[in-house]
């Protein structure tokens, strides 16, 4: 049996830069017709020139007829003229609280100073993508940030706000209060809890931000996705780190899932008896919410026992070594 | 200024075996007049012969006139005759739920089958030391285990039960309900929360079982200790791992703190304005609760800026590289 997915999209993707970009971008292009590219490079992507430069670097690695890099700009206080100029080059602007995750030092530390920029974004209909975590206790960060989401959603009712990589039952519940809120859910947050990260041995390969939460939170995310929630989209947050950064003492956050996302999602939706909802989760809902018309491309998944490789171009993927029931039809091994 | 501590005791200590025992036992002996020695060796210490053998191995590394190894046996269903024979050779019996931590596979999986052994222990006044965690969600394990503590405390009111290495406000609150319950608190659980383990980078050196909990839990532990709680004793749970086991993917739980415990505790109690409570926490309370008369030995701490070494005999200690205000008078560097 096969499942054909029309123009799958990864609505939250880290492609990095330089040599790592060259290694991993083609792996996203193999599975997806497009991806929302995060702007937290070593030097944040926060000018039109940098957006163009980064897009060009990505297009050198993936054929733009097959994979569209939906570019984002790194949130800062932009002038109206800057936003006007950026508008057609980006899909949205990504806001990071300062220092909250990998390469986010240039992010927002004073949320009272951002309203002018956001007001112009609302006017110009530029979506706001948010890493929504406070700097509080690690298990409470997402919940504590909800009050900021609430203020934004209320004050800017025509602004499309995307709660990126949600991890809690609280976030799922919250998003239903405001129709201008969407959310992305990652692959790994549909599978793991904090138990998998530190409940047995400590597992650097499952360390990510936001951290995976409780069994109740996992259940709420799965339920939202398996109900076909009309504002919940797939965004892998796939984020490679070289091996040595994941294994040495004091390791970095990030899970690399781009090349395994579609097969694992097919396995998940089929096992839960909801294969018909996969197309919506990985494409249609995003197209509706963002008003996108992606590259017309079909990705075929085959129902076939497949052992996930230990490494893709030197990066360990989520689920490495596990056997699942689906694979990309184009997957070699 | 100096603080002299009379016969400091570490009421929860892992000395391992073989080459690691030789490396670390002298470091406990430098600071402490005695320690309660955990029995979870590769082959559990669960016969009188093994208790004698392990004590002998320890005494080859530490002069028994200076450091008393208070031996424990690994809990299993013992006959009355076995317990009678063990009685004078041990300070107590340590119960591990099966598989709950390092080398605990031989622990208890069925708590309904243990009452007969425990009943004889009560009769013979052999204390029961417990690693009190369920096999549930990592942040709830200690709380979930309280119902087992409750059953034991109620059913065996003359049994001295020690809740080892408590980490939660719930445990602190619970212990006040039963006068036959004591608790140990580690060094690291007076200093860290889950934030330190996974809130920034992932820190294998702070990975331990039970895992460090929330800021509220930390506060409750500190309050219990700084109130001079008459049933709360110091037990380091110092547990060395060779470097490669802490740094590679999927790392083991355990924090090595024996050689730094007294200086860090002095720093803690002095900074909190309670230096007079240190003697009780690290010795007197344990002597009262266990009815011990330890080796008469005084350990002097000097108020002096001291940078904690990166390694002690190849093992990284808790607080490595930090500067604190106290050191052992005998510390070389």
Automatic annotation (TrEMBL), chains A, B:
Q: Which reaction does it catalyse?
A: (S)-dihydroorotate + H2O = N-carbamoyl-L-aspartate + H(+)
Q: Which SUPFAM superfamilies match?
A: Metallo-dependent hydrolases
Domain (Amidohydrolase-related): give its ranges.
Answer: 10-247
Active-site positions on this chain: 237
* Signal sequence region: none
What is the scientific name of the source organism? Desulforhopalus singaporensis
The protein's matches in InterPro entries, at most eight in alphabetical order, are given as: Amidohydro-rel, DHOdimr, Dihydroorotase_CS, Metal_Hydrolase
Q: Name one GO cellular component term.
A: cytosol
Q: Where does Zn(2+) 2 bind?
A: 94, 131, 165
Q: In which pathway does it act?
A: Pyrimidine metabolism; UMP biosynthesis via de novo pathway; (S)-dihydroorotate from bicarbonate: step 3/3
**Binding annotation for Zn(2+) 1:** 12, 14, 94, 237
Q: Which Pfam families match?
A: Amidohydro_1
Q: Which HAMAP family does the record match to this protein? A: PyrC_classII
* Family membership: Belongs to the metallo-dependent hydrolases superfamily. DHOase family. Class II DHOase subfamily.
UniProt keywords (A-Z) are:
Hydrolase, Metal-binding, Pyrimidine biosynthesis, Zinc
Q: What is its EC number?
A: 3.5.2.3
- Complex formation: Homodimer.
Enzyme category, top tier:
hydrolase
Q: Which residues carry this modification: N6-carboxylysine?
A: 94
Query: Mind telling me what this protein is named?
Result: Dihydroorotase
Its BP terms in the Gene Ontology are: 'de novo' pyrimidine nucleobase biosynthetic process; 'de novo' UMP biosynthetic process
Q: How is the cofactor bound?
A: Binds 2 Zn(2+) ions per subunit.
Function recorded in the entry: Catalyzes the reversible cyclization of carbamoyl aspartate to dihydroorotate.
**Record keyword Transmembrane helix present:** no
Q: Which residues bind substrate?
A: 14-16, 40, 131, 241, 253
């Amino acid at each position: 049996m096969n499942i054909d997915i029309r123009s799958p999209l990864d609505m939250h993707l880290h492609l990095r830069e330089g040599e790592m970009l060259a290694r991993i971008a083609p792996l996203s292009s193999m599975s997806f017709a497009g991806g929302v590219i995060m702007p937290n490079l070593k030097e944040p992507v926060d000018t039109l020139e940098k957006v163009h430069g980064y897009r060009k670097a990505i297009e050198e690695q993936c054929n733009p007829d097959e994979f569209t890099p939906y570019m984002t700009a790194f949130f800062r206080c932009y002038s109206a003229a800057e936003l006007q100029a950026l508008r057609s080059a980006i899909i949205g602007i990504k806001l990071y609280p300062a220092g909250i995750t990998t390469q986010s030092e240039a992010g927002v530390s004073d949320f009272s100073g951002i309203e002018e920029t956001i007001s112009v974004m609302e006017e110009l209909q530029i979506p706001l993508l948010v890493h929504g975590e406070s700097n509080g206790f690690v298990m409470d960060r997402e919940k504590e940030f909800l009050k900021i989401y609430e203020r934004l959603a209320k004050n800017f009712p025509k602004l499309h706000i995307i709660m990126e990589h949600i991890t809690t039952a609280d976030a799922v519940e919250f998003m239903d209060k405001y129709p201008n809120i969407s959310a992305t859910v990652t692959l790994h947050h549909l599978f793991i809890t904090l138990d998998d990260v530190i409940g047995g041995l400590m597992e650097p390969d499952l360390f990510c931000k936001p951290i995976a939460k409780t069994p109740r939170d996992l259940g709420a995310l799965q339920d939202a996705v398996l109900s076909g929630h009309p504002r919940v989209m797939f965004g892998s947050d796939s984020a490679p780190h070289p091996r040595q950064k994941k294994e040495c003492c004091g390791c970095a956050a990030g899970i690399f899932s781009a090349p395994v996302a579609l097969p694992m999602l097919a396995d998940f939706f089929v096992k839960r008896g909801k294969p018909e909802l996969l197309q919506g989760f990985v494409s249609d809902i995003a197209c509706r919410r963002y008003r996108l018309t992606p590259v017309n491309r079909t990705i075929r998944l085959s129902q076939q026992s497949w052992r996930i490789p230990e490494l893709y171009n030197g990066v360990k993927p989520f689920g490495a070594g596990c056997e699942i029931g689906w694979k990309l039809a184009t997957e070699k091994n």
